[in-house]
Amino acid sequence: MRGHIPFILATAFLVGGGNAQQAGGLSDSQKLGQRLATQHCGVCHFHIQINSTASYGPLLSQANFDNGRDAELKSVIANGGPNMPGFKYQFEPNEIDAIVDFLKTVNPPGLGVGK
Ligand code: HEC
Predict the structure, then answer these.
(1) pLDDT tens digits for 6-38?
(2) What atom in ligand 1 is closest to the CA of residue 81?
(3) Going from the N-terminus, what domains does the chain have, and what CATH number goes with each?
(4) How far, in Å, CA of 88 to CA of 77, rounded?
């Protein structure tokens, strides 16, 4: 994981800037989710440069939760996937809920994309 630290820092910067126009409107839960997602998810799920099309995992936005996928996606966050670590030992259920609350404020296609 050591090699990922520069990406995490770069992502934190991008996410902070990219959502500046939304920041005032976020609830406490959404703000907690924004902080956790920036720290723990951005390295794989957000574009690492504005003009980069690369992200390791799928871009995440409110579109991922279409068709009532909340429970399924919370399970992915808790248990992980073939190429994603699970977070159930790291986060309380309310923190996973907070991340979902935040991701639902993100317009498609996802964070770090051309904003
Ligand atoms: C090491 C890279 C990595 C990290 C860190 C990571 N993910 Fe993932 N995530 C993936 C990959 C890759 C997938 C696609 C499924 C697979 O191959 O496991 C995925 C899939 C998902 C999905 C399913 C998307 C869909 O529509 O099916 C969600 C939701 C998700 N991740 C949320 C998160 C959240 C929230 C965090 C932070 C708490 C996070 N991920 C951290 C790599 C990562």
Answers:
(1) 554 444 444 444 444 455 699 999 999 999 999
(2) 18
(3) 2-103 (1.10.760)
(4) 8
pTM equals 0.81
DSSP 63-88: GGGTTT-HHHHHHHHHH-BTTB---T
Q: Could you tell me the CA-to-CA distances from 72 to 33, 63, 100 in Å, in that order?
A: 18, 14, 12
Residues in the ligand 1 pocket, defined by CB under 6 Å:
37, 40-41, 43-45, 56-58, 60, 64, 73, 76-77, 81-85, 87, 99
